[in-house]
Amino acid sequence: MLVTMRLVAKFNSYYADKPVLTTMVTNSVLGGVADTVAQTITAFRMRSSQRQADSENGIISIEIQDFDKEKPPQWGELGYAKNRPSPFDFERLTRFMAYGFFMAPIQFQWFKFLSRAFPITKTSATGPAFKRVAVDQLMFAPFGLFCFFTFMTLAEGGGRRALMNKFRDIYLPTLKANFILWPAVQVLNFRVVPIQFQIPFVSTVGIAWTAYLSLSNSAEEE
Question: Where in or outside the cell (predicted)?
Fold first, then answer.
């Protein structure tokens, strides 16, 4: 609790001095955490699938250190290398952190616009909060997903065809999932959370959401 209070105090002081930069750094760090979670989930799934497949096929799992160091196994021998989980992808982690960093100023201005357009007061709180959520979900959510998939595809070196395939295959399912999760989160965010914590709150809850996006994006690549 004491550590949390100190972090909040530090965040408030940095936010008061440089709100946009503080939001950018916070968004970047949380985006990195989310992709790390997603890559960990992917590696765990691959290991579980490999163990299950080996068990069903009666294959004995052989650890790397059990092989003769002077005679490393060939590519694909005994399923080695071919079925191993991919190593941690630091380039992918960098892409997610960069996306969070560069998207933060847009989010910052958007939240400021919502707070001005639909002010929440002591006498009028619920109505403006729901209006903010409606405008946010109908306008910013589709735009945000468009930015995400476009940025990731281009950063991965994909061209127009890869971008079109991604929008055709996973954009609408992801947008539907967004409409299931985020309205409730945003009602709480706009109704209760102070404005300086709204983007960090969204990014913190968004660790699970960004992990989902990361898994969806990597599945489309595969």
Answer: Membrane
Stretch 190-206: mean pLDDT: 79
- The Cα 98–Cα 32 span in angstroms is 9
DSSP 80: T
pLDDT(53) > 50: yes
77 three-class SS: helix
pLDDT band at 150 (very low <50, low <70, confident <90, very high): very high
Dig out the tokens for 23 from the structure.
């939001």
Give the pLDDT of residue 197. Answer: 78
DSSP letter string, 94-163: HHHHHHHHHHHHHHHHHHHHHHHHS---SSS-HHHHHHHHHHIIIIIHHHHHHHHHHHHHHHTT--HHHH
Q: Classify each residue of 144-158 as buried b or exposed e, where b means 16 or more C-beta atoms within 10 Å of its C-beta.
A: bbeebbebbbeeeeb
What's the whole-model pTM score?
A: 0.73
Question: How far apart, in Å, are the Cα atoms of 73 and each of 38, 65, 83, 138, 143?
Answer: 30, 11, 13, 54, 48
